[in-house]
Specification:
With 122 residues, the protein is of the alpha+beta class. It has two helices and six strands; from the N terminus they run E-E-H-E-E-H-E-E. The strands form two sheets. A four-stranded antiparallel β-sheet has the order 1-2-4-3. Strand 5 and strand 6 form a beta hairpin. It is globular and about 45 Å long. The protein starts with 5 loop residues before the first strand and ends in a 6-residue tail after the last strand.
């Protein structure tokens, strides 16, 4: 199932897209045109390369390089401690306290939602 791809920003070296939850970042084992890369290719953006990927159930900003040199440079920067990555989770019920640490694994729950405490402790 294809999801509309929203290009947030772009330069000659990279494209930032808002990946919707449920949309795969890269083609599935049997490509069906639903991935971010396939949809952008169909829209005329060829030879895009992933810099950081988001899992299929996760939505958010995804960065793609337009060439191999940019991919190497952006991937190296992605792994630098100075690079700030922020993740926000939506919860269905108020948490017991304003802040804290999740020390349990996060896994798939019902209806494609993610749940805390699935499997063994982290």
């Amino acid at each position: 199932m294809a999801h509309a791809i929203n290009i947030v920003a772009s330069t000659p070296n990279w494209i930032a897209v808002n990946k919707r939850r449920g949309c795969p970042a890269v083609p599935l084992r049997v490509p069906d045109g639903s991935s971010v890369l396939e949809q952008l290719s169909a829209a005329g953006f060829d030879d895009l390369r992933t810099v950081g990927r988001l899992d299929r159930p996760v939505g958010g900003l995804m960065l793609l390089a337009t060439n191999a040199a940019s991919q190497r440079q952006l991937t190296a920067a992605w792994h630098e401690p100075a690079t700030i990555k922020e993740y926000t989770a939506r919860v269905l019920a108020p948490p017991p306290q304003e802040s804290g640490t999740i020390d349990r694994p996060i896994g798939s729950g019902r209806k494609g939602l993610m749940r805390v405490g699935i499997g063994k402790p982290a």
